[in-house]
């Protein structure tokens, strides 16, 4: 039987319930999903996995998170992996513009699951973008 996996997504989410929601929604969409709750665990997993996308639920008050995203973008090992930030509130304009110029999209909570799925699909498979997405 043909493998129907559309790619591997690493999710970093501190809230266990939201982590399960991400895992369920993305698995239904055909992705293999690994969920972790801490950046240090994500770093360990990145040394073993080759995800096609990283979804990071991050508070912009968490400086370590901002530094971590910058490290991902500047490391030759991870710079090619798209990152999607999910946050409770949008960052200050300067940070938002910096992330946008680095190609890091941000989705603010609460979010529409259909819009979330379209964003994930466009990052995972840019050639499959839906019309109007």
Describe this entry's structure for a reader.
- The chain has 133 residues and is α/β, with parallel strands linked by helices.
- The chain has one domain: Rossmann fold.
- It is 41% helix and 17% strand.
- The protein has five helices and five strands; from the N terminus they run E-H-E-H-E-H-E-H-E-H.
- A five-stranded parallel β-sheet has the order 2-1-3-4-5, sandwiched between helices.
- Strand 4, helix 4 and strand 5 form a beta-alpha-beta unit.
- 22% of the residues are buried.
- The C terminus is likely disordered.
What's a quick, concise take on this entry?
It contains 5 helices and 5 strands, in the order E-H-E-H-E-H-E-H-E-H.
Sequence-ordered SSE layout with sheet pairings:
Layout: E1 8-12, H1 16-28, E2 32-36, H2 39-46, E3 53-57, H3 63-74, E4 83-87, H4 93-101, E5 106-108, H5 113-124
Parallel strand pairs: 1-2, 1-3, 3-4, 4-5
Element order, helices and strands? EHEHEHEHEH
The gross shape turns out to be: globular
Q: Helix proportion of residues, in percent?
A: 40-55%
E-strand count: 5
- Terminal CA distance reads 31 Å
Compute the number of helices.
Answer: 5
Query: Given the helix and strand composition, which structural class is it?
Result: alpha/beta
Strand residue content: 15-25%
Task: Please name the CATH architecture.
Answer: 3-Layer(aba) Sandwich
* CATH H-level superfamily title: Response regulator
Mean pLDDT: 84
Strand order, main sheet: write it out: 2-1-3-4-5
What fold name stands as the CATH topology? Rossmann fold
């Amino acid at each position: 039987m043909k493998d129907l996996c559309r790619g591997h997504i690493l999710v970093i989410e501190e809230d266990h319930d939201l982590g399960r929601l991400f895992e369920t929604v993305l698995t239904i969409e055909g992705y293999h999903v690994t969920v972790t709750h801490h950046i240090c665990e994500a770093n360990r997993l990145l040394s073993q996995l080759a995800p096609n996308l990283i979804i990071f639920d991050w508070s912009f008050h968490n400086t370590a998170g901002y530094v971590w995203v910058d490290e991902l973008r500047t490391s030759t090992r991870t710079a090619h992996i798209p990152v999607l930030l999910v946050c409770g509130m949008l960052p200050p304009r300067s940070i938002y513009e910096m992330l946008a110029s680095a190609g890091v999209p941000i989705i603010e909570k609460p979010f529409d699951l259909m819009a979330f799925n379209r964003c994930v699909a466009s990052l995972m498979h840019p050639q499959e973008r839906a019309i109007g997405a």
